[in-house]
């Protein structure tokens, strides 16, 4: 796929919110205070990575079975114009980040994107996301 300046960086992160019980939160704060972790976020990221590592084989098998792109997949306007010129339509399936360039028009997106399945995050303009809402699973 073509590179573009507005392309998201692979190191970007998505903010999430979680609710924790007071005892769990207190234990996290204790470990931070004792120097095991630099802050709450450091502990939570480490715990999540450890769990993902525990289930790495299942993730790999599922990615292969569902034909998912693992990581980041970016679609520029030129990419979609080439797909349109070839008379093709996309079925976007990504585990990670799927992004559609900000200069992609609603018309081009509708003409070239048949469906979108993303486990992670989808970055696209609000108007494109709205137009494709019925195709996002």
Automatic annotation (TrEMBL):
InterPro entries: RHH_8, Ribbon_hlx_hlx. GO terms for biological process: regulation of DNA-templated transcription. Signal peptide: none annotated. CDD domains: RHH_NikR_HicB-like (cd22231). This is CopG family transcriptional regulator. It comes from Janthinobacterium violaceinigrum.
């Amino acid at each position: 796929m073509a590179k573009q300046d507005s392309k998201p960086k692979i190191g970007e992160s998505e903010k999430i919110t979680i609710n924790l019980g007071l005892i769990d939160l207190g234990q996290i704060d204790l470990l931070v205070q004792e120097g095991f972790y630099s802050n709450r976020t450091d502990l939570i990221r480490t715990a999540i990575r450890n769990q993902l590592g525990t289930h790495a084989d299942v993730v790999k098998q599922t990615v292969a079975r569902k034909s998912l792109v693992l990581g980041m997949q970016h679609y520029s306007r030129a990419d979609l114009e080439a797909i349109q010129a070839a008379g093709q339509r996309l079925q976007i399936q990504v585990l990670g980040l799927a992004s559609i360039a900000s200069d992609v028009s609603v018309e081009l997106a509708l003409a070239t994107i048949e469906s979108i399945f993303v486990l992670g995050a989808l970055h696209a303009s609000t108007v494109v996301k709205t137009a494709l809402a019925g195709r996002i699973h």
